[in-house]
UniProtKB/TrEMBL annotation:
MF terms in GO: 5'-3' DNA helicase activity; ATP binding; ATP hydrolysis activity
Ranges of residues in domain DNA helicase Pif1-like DEAD-box helicase: 1-67
Record's protein name: ATP-dependent DNA helicase
UniProt EC number: 5.6.2.3
Source taxonomy: Eukaryota, Viridiplantae, Streptophyta, Embryophyta, Tracheophyta
Length: 284
């Protein structure tokens, strides 16, 4: 069996887990780790043309970058969007990552090579809303359809009748091995699983799609984003989050960070927190 990974990146999520529990769940702590033959990939192919950027990623990913107050690292000025007031700064970040968007709305090459990453669904939704508002054209509403599983009485609710008008979305695949293919996306039933929010099981029929001009950092893991914006309205809170966000980029020039509000340490530069659990990186 061949496994691949980078312990500088975010670790498996343990709900409400302590640092010790999160570390304990890592493969690094498994007895299997000692029996594994390790091979190291040492060249960052994604950022091959920007050695400074590769080194910077490794420095703070390994927890070796100089810090202030234990965990705050300095982001070089040219990689930052100055924070003024929230609305203006976010607009500026959007303009830098999605320049001339009005003339590129229909270019899939343009759209798939850029994204803004953030920490919470709220900020992601806010940025997605601002970007989708820039698209012109007729708005169509596609209703979701909620039902309680095994509820046989509520057979034809209004939402269901509504759903008959637009049954599928026809879409063109923009990325990956099926690029260019036209596909029909139907609604599929989704059941919110883990959280026992309700005493019954809710089934929601909806289109399995999501705007992705902006996405949360964990969702971006594994992707290459040539023009990446990172919006940090609050501090990074887990191991490897800042590293995953910034290492999606290919160069210092095309990676922009907006920290809100930037913590003032009475010195030049924009500082943001970086969490590194050194125990998973080094045999200690
Ligand atoms: N040998 C190579 N030659 C040229 N480009 C490469 C090579 N290996 C990887 N790349 C490019 O580098 C980028 C990152 O590759 P890949 O997604 O496989 O890395 P990864 O280790 O999974 O990264 P991460 O874990 O950070 O997401 C991709 O754009 C890929 O095309």
């Amino acid at each position: 069996m061949v496994m691949g990974g980078d312990f500088r990146q975010v670790l498996p999520v343990i709900k409400r887990g302590t640092r010790a529990q999160v570390i304990d769940a890592s493969l690094r702590m498994s007895p299997l780790w000692l029996l594994t033959k390790k091979m190291r990939l040492t060249t960052n192919m994604r950022a091959i043309n920007d050695p400074w950027f590769s080194d910077f990623l490794l420095r703070f990913g390994d927890g070796n970058e100089d810090t202030v107050e234990g965990s705050f690292i300095c982001i070089p000025d040219d990689m930052t969007i100055p924070f003024t007031i929230p609305e203006n700064s976010i607009k500026e970040l959007i303009n830098v990552i999605f320049p001339s968007i009005q003339t590129n709305l229909h270019s899939s090459d343009y759209i798939i090579s850029r994204a803004i990453l953030s920490t919470t669904n709220d900020s992601v939704n806010d940025i997605n809303d601002q970007l989708i508002d820039l698209f012109q054209g007729e708005e169509k509403i596609y209703y979701i359809f909620d039902e309680v599983e095994d509820d046989s009485h509520n057979i034809y609710p209004i939402e269901f009748l509504n759903s008959l008008t637009h049954n599928v979305i026809d879409a063109e695949i923009a990325i990956g091995q099926h690029t260019g293919k036209i596909v029909f996306l139907p609604r599929i039933p989704l059941c919110p699983s883990e959280d026992d929010m309700f005493p019954f099981k809710l089934k929601r029929k909806q289109f399995p799609i999501q705007l992705s001009f902006s996405m949360i950092i964990n969702k971006a893991q594994g992707q290459t984003i040539p023009h990446v914006g990172v919006y940090l309205p609050n501090s990074i809170f887990s191991h490897g989050q800042l590293y995953v966000a910034l290492s999606r980029g290919i160069s210092r020039e095309n990676t922009k960070v907006l920290v809100h509000p930037a913590k003032d340490f009475g010195r030049e530069g924009v500082y943001t927190s970086n969490v590194v659990f050194r125990e998973v990186l080094h045999d200690e």
